[in-house]
Amino acid sequence: MHKYSPLPLAISAILSMLTLLSCNHNKVSENKKSSSAPVPVMTKLPSFISDENEAHIYLSRHFWDNTNINDTLYLQNPILLKDFFIKYLRHLSNEDSSVAAHSLKAWTKKVLQSPKNMQHFMLELAENTLYDPNSPARNETLYISILEVLSKDTTLLPVIRQKYNEQLYIARQNRPGEKANNFIMMDSKGKKNSLSDFKGKYTLLMFYEPSCPACKASLEILNNSKTFVKVCNLLNLLAIYTGDNLHEWKKSTNKFNPKWIVVHDLEMEITTERLYDRRPSPSFYLLDKNQVVILKDGTTSQLLSILEVLNKEHGIKG
């Protein structure tokens, strides 16, 4: 694992924001509350466990023991159930990845055995929290553990299982610490290259859309960032369009300063072969000098945080 990998499990600081996260498609109204609805309760730590590490592991495995996930009365007050799930994720965020994975897989199996309305609510909540690109607690590492169970479960409808298989496939692409998928590109001057041609420097990939306001705003943030300006000499800067409207793409190339190489996906293989997860726009990938992924599908702020580390490590001043 590369030392500059993003923090896939360090989400505690932002999980509290998720109380505002809405699941727009839940059939259960969040405004519907009942005095008879039970309150989810975390399991208590046995008195014989005094070691802190053992305590964390125990709670990860038994967090839901006092909350019967088969009891659909919890759905009468879904906000409480959401908050409890967030509390669970907050605990897992401080755990070893193998402990977190074991816990989430066991949780997913319990959910799959619950009544259909509870199953639907919990799985949609997990997807909206951990996989939605707009979620402040999007966490691919945690979600993969859930997907590894869902993609194999034969009780789900084939079309639903296929959806989870597709999510798992793209989630496993370009994981931090692994070499980035190669692809062929062409720049605005008609020069053909492949990603593997860019060696010897860190490589920044910015997947963008020509008419995307968020892409324009992110580019302005980078251009006005002292951190980004200072580190530019360490980077190959690639702005990549993956669509098929080359007329619009050519018009957009003048939005980038000359330090950027603006290209399009020549053979449309990024889309057809599903080589990169780029659901948000823009989507940033940062690769090291050996094209090992440091940041996957990151935001502008995540990128700048990592570039600040590069600045310090390379002793760049100015």
Structure notes:
The chain is of the alpha/beta class and 318 residues long. Helices cover 40% and strands 12% of the residues. The protein has helices spanning 12-15, 52-62, 78-92, 97-112, 116-130, 140-150, 158-171, 213-223, 226-231, 246-252, 269-272, 300-313, and strands at 184-187, 192-194, 202-207, 235-241, 260-265, 283-287, 293-298. α4 crosses α6 and α6 (140-150) packs antiparallel against α7. It has a 7-stranded mixed β-sheet, covered by helices on one side. β6 (283-287) and β7 (293-298) form a beta hairpin. The chain starts with 11 loop residues before the first helix and ends in a 5-residue tail after the last helix.
